[in-house]
Fold this sequence. Notes:
This protein is of the alpha/beta class. It has 2 domains: 6-46, no CATH class; 56-301, Glycerol-3-phosphate (1)-acyltransferase (3-Layer(aba) Sandwich), CATH 3.40.1130. It contains 11 helices and 9 strands. It has helices at residues 6-11, 19-27, 33-47, 59-76, 105-117, 130-133, 138-144, 152-160, 172-175, 192-200, 275-301; strands at residues 80-82, 93-97, 124-128, 147-149, 164-167, 204-210, 220-222, 234-236, 256-259.
Amino acid sequence: MPDLDRVELLEAEPAGRGAFENTWYKSTRLLRPTFYGRWLGRWHLRWHADEVDPFGFDPLFTRRLQPLFDFLFERYWRVEVTGLEHVPGRGRVMLVANHSGTLPWDGITLRLAVEKQHPSHRSTRFLVEDFLFHFPFLGTWLNRIGGVRACQDNARRLLEREQALVVFPEGAKGMGKLYKDRYRLQRFGRGGFVKLAMRTGTPIVPVAVVGAEETHPLLARSDWLARPLGLPYLPITPTFPWLGPLGLLPLPSRWKIVFAPALPVERDPAGAEKPEQVMKLTERVRDTIQEMLDVEISAREA
Length: 302
């Protein structure tokens, strides 16, 4: 048999039907699942590119969502960006920022800030925690707009491709901070991002993000309700779970993103194995971000 397209097979009418049966078959096509399967398939193809990069980035899908991102960045959150001149226009660089907001809006907004306002409009990728990356629909959506599953191998491969990489060393602990603890940095793990920077010779740019804490003010966390869903916690905010899925919509807070001068890091694989050297640079980055947060919060309150 010659090769047939799947759509042709679905649309083919069974042989041996009479005129009445064919008329009935055509008039009831809106009731058949195959009709909606074809419609959804065509809609899906119009939203997605034929090819994606090795990390799942889909340029066509991102371009389709660009009006939404522009609205959030320019009108909803009215993001103010300073210090972008510290981000190099080319070559590998690691942007290390504070993490918050329950959902990873800060990673998306940081990507937009660099791509929209940097003179070189360079592409930026951001790391996503495992529990978000594997969450149904959300993980795929984040993957298609530039998110990458957070692990050492993925981060190293991106830096070897001379990419700008956004890292959140606080991880899930940062996203799970209660509102009363907002803008207080959590522990930066064991300095994995510093080890990676030393092994690859990647400069580190500390970044302070103000405003993300107010998008989903976390009033409490429920651990026992989260376990059946495979989540580290279930957030309780002023809108979620009371409003259902609508409670996941972010609130319109005012954002400010500040980039500090880059910290040059020499390629030193041997030094990456020395805990005291790694923790010294880790604490330096953490203190720099905390100081920037304190300055911006004081200025905002004044």
